[in-house]
Amino acid sequence: MYIDRSKFSLDQPVSSLDPNRGTYEEAAEWQRHGPVVPVTLPDDVRAWAAVSAEAARSVLNAHPDLSSDPQHWGAYNRGEIPAGWPLLHLIVGESLLNADGAAHRRLRGLLSHAFAPRRIDALAPRIQEITRELLDGLESVEPEEVIDLKETFAYPLPLMIICELYGLIDSDQQRQLRGHFRTLLSVDVSSAERQAATTGEREVLARLVADRSAAPLGDLTSALLEALDEDGGKLTQKELIDTLEFILSAGHETTVNALTNTVLALLSHPDQLTAVLGGELSWSGAVEAGLYWKAPVRTVFMRYALRDTVLHGVTVRRGEPIAVSLAAANREQYATVPAPFDMHDSRPYQRQLAFGAGPHYCLGAPLARLESSIGLSQLFARFPAMRLAVPESELKPVISTAINGLAALPVVLRPASASDSGDRAAQRE
């Protein structure tokens, strides 16, 4: 059927971004309309969605007619976006996510030293230690006992690491931050609850900044405070808090879902899990295949048209926003059918988009990959007979417009018939 995409506009969306709908079912529908389509986001917020790999790359790369700065968002400037809109606190923050050109390079440069390859590699021993501590805590699990692996392992691992990066050593503050963060990611809370969580999260980060200002620890927060205090003011107080908030959100949740999704992939493809455990395939290869099979980020928000722009056959008017359907674009060729998880063929994910593209490519991608590789290798070494506790069809997705993952991952770490082998694996650790 011929579709005249030149007549598409935000006045007549062709579909909606529904957090209750399957990511790839939705993507299949959108991609039938073309690479860029007008959609409705929650609360009737209108946006274009880039849903093909080519369109995603053109939006995420340094497009001369597009900006990351929300000051160019027409509907927001006109007061049409609800104050409690779930993603507003991140979309309008003064972080590198929402900066362009020299401003973006300045903010990214301040952070890049903390995520330099040698510094990331130097974190490996501590990541291994934290992973072992978490797995030690699961040693008391009885044969056939069901646990939520996301809650007990995938969630705390990256949170503990990012708190250490920040110099956030107070356990009460860590718990508060975790609670506020959960609320902000939920779609089942009221606008008042979300605003309270935003305030609470920023209060925790403000206390962290005050603590590290009084007693620097050589951590990321202390380094950013040095930039704040330098003559010429490389960083404002608001930029500092917004940047910490952004890294927490982007860096933590991405790794949680990368871990959870890849565990599911391996448990549902036992032949490939056996090959990895036997050394025929690598854990880094498992991470890449998992990122391609089910990218942890569903949608990236936003870019804004600086002028009327023709983009892949549609006209995006000045001030209109564009969201990138990252998970769909990442695995575009398999959008209409279940995508294969195939570690034997790395070609499909050599140019994958799981961590974005262009100037805003995820700064923490190497850390997320390292955490995932170490976490997966130690997890399966300790519990090689782990299995899903429910049929895969019964697993529930996260209800989110931004995240592509599972609400929970119920597993049996030690099936009764394999408890002895599991104990021997633990002793080898």
TrEMBL record:
Gene3D superfamilies: Cytochrome P450 (1.10.630.10). InterPro entries: Cyt_P450, Cyt_P450_B, Cyt_P450_CS, Cyt_P450_sf. It holds the Pfam family p450. PROSITE patterns: CYTOCHROME_P450 (PS00086). Transmembrane segments: none annotated. Keywords: Heme, Iron, Metal-binding, Monooxygenase, Oxidoreductase. Belongs to the cytochrome P450 family. This is Cytochrome P450. It comes from [Kitasatospora] papulosa.
